[in-house]
Design goal:
- It is a single chain.
- With about 120 residues, the chain is an all-beta fold.
- It contains no helices and eleven strands.
- The strands form two sheets. Strands 2, 4, 5, 6, 9, 10 and 11 form a seven-stranded mixed beta sheet that branches. A four-stranded antiparallel beta sheet has the order 1-3-8-7, with no helix packed on it.
Length: about 120
């Protein structure tokens, strides 16, 4: 089993910065991609950013140029640096990782951006 623990969420103002962290523990051998997804009220969960085991990144258009995903393989941790946040970034953010063929999800962490 794999456990994911997210941290760093909270309430911020528009234009501020915030960093989310997610650390995996348990049977973590073979982690492939890691990423962040989010779900806003009354909306479906959507991809924010992913990073492969070799550092290749992918971002949603809505966050390109503002968010940066990174990972520390030695710590089994993935980060999401959020800059210039906007009210529309308000959502529950979920950490995700894949140990093929199984995806694992964190419990979610709230980010609220006020205007």
């Amino acid at each position: 089993q794999v456990q994911l623990v997210e941290s760093g969420g909270g309430w911020v103002k528009s234009g501020d910065s915030l960093r989310l962290s997610c650390t995996a523990s348990g049977s973590t051998r073979g982690i492939n991609s890691m990423g962040w997804y989010r779900q806003a009220p009354r909306k479906e969960r959507e991809l924010v950013a992913t990073i492969s085991s070799i550092g290749r990144t992918n971002y949603a258009d809505s966050v390109k140029g503002r968010f940066t995903i990174s990972r520390d393989n030695a710590k089994n941790t993935v980060y999401l640096q959020m800059s210039s946040v906007r009210p529309e970034d308000t959502a529950v953010y979920y950490c995700n990782l894949e140990i093929p063929p199984i995806p694992y999800w964190g419990q979610g962490i709230q980010v609220i951006v006020s205007s």
